[in-house]
Amino acid sequence: MFIRHLELENFRNHNKSTFEFSKGITIVVGLNGSGKTNLLEAIALLSLAKPVRNGLEADLINIDSSFSRVVGIYEDFDGDDVKLEAFLNKKPDSNRVVKTFKINGAQKTGVQFVGHTKVVFFAPEDIRLVAGSPSRRRDYIDRILSQVHTNYHKALLKYERVLKHRNKVLEHGHDAQLLVWDAQLLECAQVVQNYRRLFFDFSDMNLKDISVHLFSDGFSLSTKYAPSFLSSDSLSRARQKDLMYGTTQVGPHRDDYSFVLKNHHVLDLKHYGSRGQQRTGVLCMKILEEKYMVETSSVPPILLLDDIFSELDENYKSAIEKVIGVNQTIITSADIKSIPDSIKNNAKIITL
Q: Where does the chain bind ATP (predicted)?
């Protein structure tokens, strides 16, 4: 499914804007601050039902408005139009946002809406996936799995709700009430961590082959999943510490993973990789992400590439071109000269 038409109303700096896209490649050119990235964020919102970048949902609404509206017209594989709509309404005197979603005019829950269309979002700041916090790495995996597996998304949302309730019980020191929440937490955690484990199994089978073509000096990349395993025993062992700190100390919300470079030595990419190697590692993960979505859902995602070509050398640009060849791709750039001619010559150009 590809996007043909996008309407933005009060979305970040877009008061009222409309865009038409090519089935293949569209390049959006404009100065910094012109709204290029915001356009990509709007398309991502129609896949994820939440911001693709860190920040408050209220930040998606124009500062002079109390609401924003994003409408996308897509064409499915049968040639039929599919209309996706997201409405964000900010409550007065607060940053709380109420979201409403529709597919072809019919209201849907967030769970029903997420993943109806799929995206891979790639921006220069994604290097923080390697060097940043565990929460950033978890969010990245959650975005991938939630788009592809509805059961994962349901279990994750329920886990987060139950975790919030359990932490409130811990804050008040109500030890006797924990058993009720423990059972629900364990049920959701098992689903979440099983799906995450399957993703990292997929990574084990595919990431090496992707990375050997991008890293020099015979290096290859792998991921190492470090789950915070949740069981009845681990909850029991952590109970006194949970009560002491007022928060749950074990579970999927404490999961992490690392990136490992291998040739004759084994190196942690976060601590020992150069910035160039870290950037290459992120590119490998984006290619893996696209491959995972295609192989698990049979639906090629839309590639949203936010001004990335200025930071990539010719070898990396060639790797991106191979993925672009089979996916609808929307590229933003402040300098169109940074984009290879082989991409520009086949692209629709939008100037902001």
A: 30-37
Give yes or no for a contact between 330 and 40, defined as CB atoms under 8 angstroms apart.
yes
Nearest to 202 by CA among 325, 285, 122: 285
Binding residues for ATP: 30-37
Residues 235-269: tens digit of each pLDDT: 999 999 999 999 999 999 999 999 999 988 899 99
Residues making up the binding site = 30-37
Task: Tell me the angle at which helices 275-297 and 134-148 cross, rounded to the nearest 10 degrees.
Answer: 20
For 212-232, b/e burial (b = at least 16 CB within 10 A) is eebbeeebbbbbebebbebee
Beta bridge partners of 131: none
Query: Which residues of the chain does CATH 1.20.1050.90 include?
Result: 131-297
- What kind of fold does domain 1-118+299-352 have according to CATH? Rossmann fold (3.40.50)
- The phi-psi region of residue 105 (left if phi > 0; otherwise alpha if psi is between -120 and 50; otherwise beta) is left
The 10s digit of each residue's pLDDT in 320-334 is 888 887 899 999 999
pTM: 0.94
Q: Is domain 131-297 classified as CATH 1.10.10.1100? A: no
CATH 3.40.50.300 maps onto the chain at 1-118+299-352
